[in-house]
Amino acid sequence: MSQPESAVADAQAGGRSGQEPLAKLAARYGLRRAMARPRFTVYVRQLWERRHFILTYATSRNVSKYSNSALGQLWQVLTPLLNAAIYYVMFGIILGGKGDIANYPAFLLTGMFVFTYTQRTVTAGAKSISGNLSLIRALHFPRASLPLAYTIQELQQLAISMGVLLVIVVATGEFPTWFWLMIPVVLLLQTMFNIGAGLIIARLGSSMRDLNQLLPFITRTWLYASGVFFSIQEKVVGSAELPQWVADVMYYANPAASYIEVMRDILITKSDHVPPQSVWISCVFWAVFTLGFGFWYFWRAEERYGRG
Amino acid sequence: MAELTEELSLVKGEEPAVPAKAGTNGKADTAGKGGKADPKPAVTGGKSPLDVPTGTPTVIVDDLHIVYRVYGAATDAEKGNAVNALTRILKRQGRPQMKEVHAVKGVSFVAYHGDAIGIVGRNGSGKSTLLRAIAGLLPPHAGAVYTDGQPSLLGVNAALMRDLTGERNIVLGCYAMGMTPSEVREKFQEIVDFSGIDEFVQLPMSTYSSGMGARLRFAISSAKTHDVLLIDEALATGDREFRKKSEKRIRQIREEAGTVFLVAHDLRVIEETCNRVIWLHKGKIKMDGDPKEVLAAYNKG
């Protein structure tokens, strides 16, 4: 049907004078806006319905990640081990970070593996939206699936690293106790925190493009502040002679330090290193708070993730 | 947009009996379409030869504007120079590499149940952007898209991973489209058979020829039934035999789906499968109506 030019121009100008506005027509037939953000509870349910996708996506990424390197999945364990070896030489031996810590290798490795889990989740989470724009622009799914899948991918890797860690810890002279049954609980709490942190950083990363350049510096500062290769109590209060509350803040206000301390408390018995009391409380607090806030914060921008 | 006008008045005037009436209209209209000054109202709503209830709007696009933000589109003078970057920040100019592209500028139309709408236009005229906006994947800058049910884009390419085997990709793609595990088990063999890649399904997709990859992707993405289906250049893939197969599949999908949108550069495909064509030019609708007429005009200018 060829149209008179004026009609085209009229339509382009949005002029449909004398007729029912399209919005009303839509309402009359019960059509909904394509881009509406679901209610929070609905959103969480949709996410649960997508659990198979999230799991498959995480596993697939893990399988494809190392498919080009000769050692393959071994790198998941080798990377933190090599890092730990460097820190052992640099900080443990040369700079004397060992201090009074009795079982320093176990101390260092526990810190390293626990911190690596959070660090990798945050780094991956920052790219989970900005690096998947084509997927977001092609398919419909709750966008939180992506940061969630990235966290689960890291969790799958952690399962292997934890096995290695336990072997090494036993090799350094520790003996498994009933306390070790608490390890999954700590990991669960840390995973909750990581999911929340991943969601927050994913939203930030989707709009702040420079975040990926900044993150290495942020995570390295975080690494140093978390007492991975030294005892916060000993260095801050002992060597630097700062007041006790500084050390307390570093323990409680820093979720990574809290998880590291609790994990050390469980794994290492042969040491005088005593974690601060009630650090458990901060572990639970950070897990619940970050998870809840992360979901809410991410969900708030759900409909905007497609834009460049 | 004379016919949109007519449709609206039709819908408005005959509201109670819309599906039945429009359905009969449709059949009558199929025979008599193409009449230039045909005053009969059911221009688009009923032209579908398929026996589906027509007349109910499924997609309403209301004065839609889409603005893309594109990064890294700097001119040569501004590019890759730290001093320039610093002066820019000091002058608080923001990011000149960031350009806004106004891809869709005020598009309005109503699509009805049973419609198969072809979208034609030059490269960069906003076709794919419009489809993505209808799918609800790109937020509108202004205006709105109203839909009945969830429109889905035929395409899972972005979810697939080259390093993984065909098998894994089929499962991943199906889940990405929102299938349940039982649906995936049910459809798996069907997808393998339809794609015709046979034993290659055990190999990573990176080893596939481009035709095989395209076949598998099409097989995966067409395995699901949709209310409103959006197809972006999916037909121009594969060899002749597969093309016939996929055209048949599209027709079948169209019978199941309420409304189909099809973007293609191959105008023959559009002429064969669509009952309405929208011609986009620089983000605006230049023409909207019967395939023969719109395509004739499109070919001329």
Automatic annotation (TrEMBL), chain B:
This protein's record includes keyword Chaperone: no
SMART domains assigned: AAA (SM00382)
Q: Which CDD domains match?
A: ABC_KpsT_Wzt
Q: Give the organism, scientific name.
A: Nonomuraea indica
Instruction: Classify the source by domain of life.
Output: Bacteria
The cross-references to Gene3D superfamilies, in alphabetical order and at most eight, read: P-loop containing nucleotide triphosphate hydrolases
- Acyltransferase listed as a keyword: no
- Region Disordered: list its residue ranges: 1-51
Q: Which UniProt keywords apply?
A: ATP-binding, Nucleotide-binding, Transport
Pfam short name (any one): ABC_tran
- For bias kind Low complexity, which ranges apply? 20-31
Name recorded for this polypeptide: ABC transporter ATP-binding protein
> PANTHER family annotated for this entry?
TEICHOIC ACIDS EXPORT ATP-BINDING PROTEIN TAGH (PTHR46743)
Stated family: Belongs to the ABC transporter superfamily.
